[in-house]
Amino acid sequence: MELHISQSAFTVQIRQLEDALGVALFDRSKRRVALTSAAQEVLIPLERLIIDAEAVVSRTRQIAGLRRGAVSLAVLPLVAAQLVPDAIRKFRQQYPGVSVQLNDVPAERLLNAVRKEEVDFGIGTCSRVDRELRSTPLMVDSMCAFLRRAHLLARQESVTLRELLTHPLILIGKGTSVREVLDEALGREKLVANIAYETNYVSTAMGMVRAGLGVAVLPESAANSEDAREIRCLPITRPALSRKIEVIQRKDRSLSPAAQQMLDVLREHAASSAS
Fold first, then answer.
1. Residue 84 is part of which domain span?
2. Can you tell me the distance from the alpha carbon of 82 to that of 87, in angstroms, rounded to the nearest whole number?
3. CA-CA distance, 199 to 116, in Å (whole number)?
4. Per residue of the chain (275 residues), what is the pLDDT tens digit?
5. Which of 23, 145, 167, 259 is surrounded by the fewest CB atoms within 10 Å?
6. Distance (Å, rounded) from C-alpha 10 to C-alpha 74?
7. Could you tell me if 150 and 235 lie in one domain?
């Protein structure tokens, strides 16, 4: 076995080890060098330590080289449905040895998952200052009005917030990032919404729009080509409404190589989607 050190340097290291352990490891004579009885007693445990150390080094190199590992992320449901699947597919094609766990959860559960280190990072909104978390921009999701093509407003290219309030509205429930954006705008403009229905899920709101039960205020990313024949998506103006989608991490934690690469792929995919 080649150690890539000189014999004299190796001899010094052995003597230093013997001094540290307080016991002789080798019996030396002019004709031969042999293990002492004390060295023979610790030989098997030492071999195990060497094997374990080599395994640790090998595993660490695999993790650093993205040949193995795991990534866990928490994402707002609509963003998870529209942005993340293609990014995961691309990541897995490049790094098949790294597993990815996706948790699609509401905003508050997302923040708690990041705080408790249940996930590597989150993709969502962080509207309030949090001492434990830091957020960096990923993309902007504009709010739009979704309505049936037979609706009176469907002939317009856009709709103002004030115009919307003259029609029955279908809104996502309180406590969600989508609802917070609308409620803040209504408060600034001193307006009151005509709420017909509140739902927990975007799919339910879209179903109500298809049934002609009102106009839904949802992120632009909720637009689905399958609904294009039945439903129009109009930008909301005066004021324009949008929510910032951010990468949310703990301030005191760095990302693993795999998590950082997954985030880089997500950023690239978000930028290409926006363009």
1. 69-138+244-274
2. 10
3. 28
4. 555 667 777 677 778 877 777 777 777 777 777 778 777 777 777 778 767 666 666 566 655 555 668 899 999 988 998 889 999 999 999 888 889 999 999 888 999 999 999 999 999 988 777 889 999 999 998 999 999 999 999 999 999 999 999 999 999 988 888 898 999 999 999 999 999 999 988 889 999 999 999 999 999 888 876 676 899 999 999 899 999 999 999 999 989 888 998 999 999 999 887 66
5. 23
6. 52
7. yes
DSSP assignment letter at 56? H
* Number of folded domains that form the chain: 3
What is the pTM assigned to this prediction? 0.72
Q: Is 1 part of any domain? A: no
CATH, residue 46: 1.10.10.10
Q: Are 215 and 151 in contact (CB under 8 A)?
A: yes
